[in-house]
């Protein structure tokens, strides 16, 4: 082990901040024949499942396959209709999520549960604050936070408000919160969705170390490469059933996809069409004080321009500037061959035909309490109205046309957006803008957390529109996706433009090399 | 129900499985059942309740609160709140009475409505543009408005000695009170605005998700501010009706009316967090509150018990609504 310097114990100790467990192969969770139905939906049917101590168990399935319902049940948040769940040999009682802590399960849900107004420290210990008598033991919290941060390779100040952190860092705090409770079982639902490649690598490393210490992990992700790489065994869910469990080495990406989708045919990625020479938009010397530094690039008619970069590189800011959402943006814009002032308001940009489908569909994209149809019409109400009175027949017709274009089930047009799956919600965000027939569509993470089928339908719709002449700028944390769908790729790091790659030359490896060259230079510079 | 219901708030899409839909249906129409139940109980207790005379009297009596509830529905749908209503209502009545002493009634009423609109605009700008919390803004402006009324009247009542001044509040056409007609017209017209126009759709969108609406190119600040202006106009008209009914006005006309107005909107099922609700709900809420109040009198219930029963019905209605919402959304 590591040498200990007497008198300086706390700084030199390299102890692991969680317990070491025996990892002899006992069963951590056993699920027998569990079913659950909601009004009108059979969410789970006859699930049988075992989680072994110290294993990483991948769980995959299309949206709506029942994964989230299943793990909510394991963490005690919802009760099965039939069947039983045993945690380390004792049956699970469904009363209070707080009891689950005692049962040895911690969960990281897909939706962030960070409280933005509270400090990072308070968030990290939410629900289980170390205390002495009636007072919170702040010193102990700080010590444990520092210990865990070091172990997890985080560098986040415990005293800032959690709301000021990037989504990626908020997610890391969420993970830290689950890890600090030091439970035997950890459930992670899409933990990597908001993370960039850098943070992902850190999380993979963390999962490996948790496993060494005998923690059993259920790992849910839409990124199949990741699941195959991390898991010992992988289970596939489809339509509320657990279809198959195999060792990870017995699965391939193809067999997984086939098991997830059942009999559905997968359309191969379409060939890239070549963009025209006509430049639709030219941005020069775009700057946003402290965030973006002199970007210049063009967007051709019918082109899909991808922007690749790590979380925090400034990708979202670029789109927001172009869409008029950042009043302090500086730079000049040539639009459709004419110089025009930089758009200062959203409405100004929309007036030119530039629209933004934002990153956070629930908070920025949709009015969840309204129907799918209302959401589709939101950005262009005047087009479906006579004077100021809305023509419902026109609304219905437009809605149905859009639904067809997007592969959205038109029977669900009257459903509240709240009750739709992530994929369907994303189709609405997209459809809302397609309804305006924009000249330029800015897409920020259009596929985050949605299943393969919906992803394909979304990209097919985007490709079709770009073929008709629309210019598209695409951001995705999934670099493969950027490479696969972009005609050109703009690579960014730390608010700066590094390179623009031609689609044919762009590979994930090349992009990462470009980014990490800049990142490591920055880190070196910071260290010296 | 035709397929063109999409943009209308309220009715949920029908499915074959009505049993599974039952909680949703009760959630949507439960409030209507409550009203029908109350109407039945009071009518059986005292058939005079449904006499033409009584119904018209109620419509006239509840016109000020009802018209203000129309404005309040808009404000609450955008996620706002207006607590300055009671003070502004009194001030507008005072202005109407003051001007009415020397000028023609229509001048008096126009002046009162203008004052209402003006204070509404001030509230709207403070909430939507300066972005002060609506609760604080309107509590503060309520004090100011009340102060203005007190200074104007020196806490005395203004009496109007002009028979024409009373027509708006007490006049009738073939027995139907003008004030009651105005109430119905407001409910119908603004109900239509809310359910069928671009403006109405924007109100729901802004209340449901402010940021998403802004990013969709809706003029969010204008929309929010406009609801306070509309509220101000409704308060102005309500003040006119009250002054006209009494042929007088004073600075503290009816401080408790704010609770009636809020209760009418909320009991109807319009959500205080904004984005969901409807004008028909406010109409039903008005029906419930008016029936309870009138029923107490007709059934000769001791006034000491009235508060207890009224409070219980309101809390029970909201508990039912919240409980069912949770049941419906428990997924």
Low-confidence stretches of chain B: 1-16
Counted beta strands of chain B: 4
Task: Please work out how many helical segments of chain B DSSP would assign.
Answer: 13
Mind telling me the C-alpha Rg of chain B?
20 Å
Number of domains of chain A: 3
Name the overall outline of chain A: globular
**Overall tally of domains of chain B:** 1
Strand content of chain A: 25-35%
| Second-tier CATH architecture of the largest domain in chain A | 3-Layer(aba) Sandwich
Query: What fraction, in percent, of the residue positions of chain A are helical?
Result: 25-40%
Low-pLDDT stretches of chain A are: 1-14, 265-271
CATH architecture of chain B: Orthogonal Bundle
CATH superfamily caption of the largest domain in chain A: P-loop containing nucleotide triphosphate hydrolases
Query: Number of helix segments of chain A?
Result: 18
Helix amount of chain B: over 70%
Q: What oligomeric arrangement do these chains adopt? A: heterodimer
The neighbouring-strand order within the major sheet of chain A is: 6-9-10-3-11-12
Q: SSE string of chain B, helix = H, strand = E? A: HHHHHEHEEHHHHEHHH
Report on this structure.
The complex is a heterodimer of chains A (528) and B (331). In chain A, the strands form six sheets. In chain A, strands 6-9-10-3-11-12 form a six-stranded mixed β-sheet, sandwiched between helices. In chain A, strands 18-21-22-15-23-24 form a six-stranded mixed β-sheet, with helices on both faces. Chain A has 18 helices and 24 strands. Residues 1-14 and 265-271 of chain A have low confidence and may be disordered. Chain A has three domains: 19-261, 3-Layer(aba) Sandwich (Rossmann fold); 278-353 and 440-523, P-loop containing nucleotide triphosphate hydrolases (Rossmann fold, 3-Layer(aba) Sandwich); 367-437, no CATH class. The relative contact order of chain A is 0.10. Chain B has 13 helices and four strands. By secondary structure, chain B is mostly helical. Chain B has a single domain, classed as ABC transporter involved in vitamin B12 uptake, BtuC (Orthogonal Bundle). The relative contact order of chain B is 0.18. In chain B, the strands form two sheets. Chain B has a two-stranded antiparallel ribbon. Chain B has a two-stranded antiparallel ribbon with strand order 2-3. Chain B starts with 17 loop residues before the first helix and ends with a helix. The chains are: A alpha/beta (528), B mainly alpha (331). The interface between A and B is large, with 41 and 36 residues.
């Amino acid at each position: 082990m590591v040498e200990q310097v007497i008198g300086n114990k706390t700084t030199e100790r390299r102890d692991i901040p969680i317990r070491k467990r025996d990892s002899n192969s006992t069963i951590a969770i056993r699920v027998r024949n569990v079913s659950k139905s909601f009004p009108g939906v059979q969410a789970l049917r006859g699930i049988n499942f075992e989680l072994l101590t110290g294993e990483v168990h991948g769980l995959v399935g299309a949206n709506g396959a029942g994964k989230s319902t299943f793990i909510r049940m394991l963490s005690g948040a919802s009760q099965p209709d039939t069947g039983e769940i045993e945690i380390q040999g004792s049956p699970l009682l469904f009363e209070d999520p707080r009891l689950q802590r005692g049962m040895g399960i911690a969960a990281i849900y897909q939706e962030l549960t960070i409280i933005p107004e509270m400090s990072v420290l308070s968030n990290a210990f939410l629900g289980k604050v170390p205390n002495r008598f009636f007072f919170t033991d702040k010193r102990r919290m700080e010590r444990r936070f520092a210990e865990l941060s070091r172990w997890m390779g985080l560098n986040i100040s415990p005293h800032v408000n959690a709301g000021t952190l990037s989504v990626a860092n908020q997610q890391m705090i969420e993970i830290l919160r689950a890890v600090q409770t030091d439970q035997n079982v950890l459930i992670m639902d899409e933990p990597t969705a908001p993370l960039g490649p850098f943070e992902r690598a850190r999380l993979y490393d963390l999962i490996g170390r948790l496993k060494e210490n005998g923690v059993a992990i259920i790992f849910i992700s839409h990124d199949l490469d990741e699941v195959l790489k991390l898991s010992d065994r992988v289970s596939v869910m489809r339509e509320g059933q657990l279809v198959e469990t195999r060792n990870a080495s017995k699965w391939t990406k193809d067999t997984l996809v086939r098991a997830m989708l059942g009999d559905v045919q997968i359309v191969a990625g379409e060939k890239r069409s070549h963009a025209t020479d006509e430049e639709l938009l030219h941005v020069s010397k775009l700057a946003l004080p402290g965030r973006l530094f002199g970007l210049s690039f063009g967007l051709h008619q019918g082109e899909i321009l991808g922007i690749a970069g790590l979380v925090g590189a400034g990708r979202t800011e670029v789109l927001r500037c172009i869409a008029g959402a950042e009043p302090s943006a500086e730079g000049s814009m040539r639009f459709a061959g004419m110089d025009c002032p930089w758009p200062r308001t959203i409405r100004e940009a929309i007036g030119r035909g530039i629209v933004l489908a934002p990153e956070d569909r629930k908070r920025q994209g949709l009015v969840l309490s309204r129907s799918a149809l209302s959401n589709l019409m939101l950005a262009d109400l005047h087009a479906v109205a006579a004077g100021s009175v809305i023509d419902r027949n026109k609304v219905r017709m437009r809605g149905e046309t859009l639904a067809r274009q997007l592969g959205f089930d038109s029977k669900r047009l009257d459903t509240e957006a709240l009750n739709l799956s992530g994929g369907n919600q994303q189709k609405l965000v997209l459809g809302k803008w397609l309804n305006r027939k924009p000249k330029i569509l800015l897409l920020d993470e259009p596929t985050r957390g949605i299943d393969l089928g919906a992803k394909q339908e979304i990209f097919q719709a985007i490709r079709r529109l770009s073929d008709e002449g629309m210019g598209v700028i695409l951001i995705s944390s999934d670099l493969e996706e950027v490479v696969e769908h972009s005609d050109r790729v703009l690579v960014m790091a730390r608010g700066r433009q590094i390179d623009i790659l031609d689609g044919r030359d762009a590979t994930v490896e090349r992009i990462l090399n470009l980014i990490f060259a800049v990142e490591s230079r920055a880190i070196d510079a910071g260290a010296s | 129900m035709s397929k063109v219901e999409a943009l209308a708030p309220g009715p949920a899409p029908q499915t074959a499985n009505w049993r599974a839909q039952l909680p949703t249906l009760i959630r949507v129409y439960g409030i209507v059942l409550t009203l029908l139940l109350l109407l039945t109980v009071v009518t059986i207790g005292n058939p005079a309740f449904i006499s033409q005379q009584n119904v018209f009297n109620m419509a006239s009596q509840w016109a000020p609160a009802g018209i203000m509830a129309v404005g309040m529905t808009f404000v609450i749908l955008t996620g706002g709140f207006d607590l300055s209503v009671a003070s502004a209502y009194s001030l507008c009545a005072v202005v109407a009475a003051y001007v009415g002493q020397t000028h023609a009634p229509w001048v008096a009423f126009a002046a009162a409505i203008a004052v209402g609109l003006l204070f509404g605009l001030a509230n709207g700008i403070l909430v939507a543009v300066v972005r002060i919390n609506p609760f604080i803004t309107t509590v503060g402006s309520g004090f100011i408005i009340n102060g203005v009324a007190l200074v104007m009247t020196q806490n005395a009542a203004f009496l109007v000695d002009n028979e024409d001044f009373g027509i708006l509040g007490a006049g009738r056409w073939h027995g139907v009170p003008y004030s009651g007609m105005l109430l119905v017209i407001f409910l119908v017209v603004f109900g239509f605005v809310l359910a069928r126009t671009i403006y109405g759709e924007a109100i729901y969108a802004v209340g449901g998700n402010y940021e998403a609406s802004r990013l969709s190119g809706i003029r969010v600040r204008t929309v929010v501010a406009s609801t306070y202006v509309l509220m101000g106009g409704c308060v102005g008209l309500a003040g006119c009706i009250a002054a006209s009914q009494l042929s007088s006005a004073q600075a503290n006309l009816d401080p408790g009316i704010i609770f009636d107005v809020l209760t009418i909107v909320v009991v109807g099922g319009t959500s205080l967090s904004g984005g969901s609700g409807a004008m028909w709900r406010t109409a039903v809420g008005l029906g419930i509150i008016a029936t309870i109040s009138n029923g107490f009198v007709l059934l000769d219930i001791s006034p000491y018990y009235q508060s207890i029963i009224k409070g219980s019905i309101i809390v029970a209605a909201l508990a039912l609504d919240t409980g069912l919402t949770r049941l419906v959304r428990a997924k």
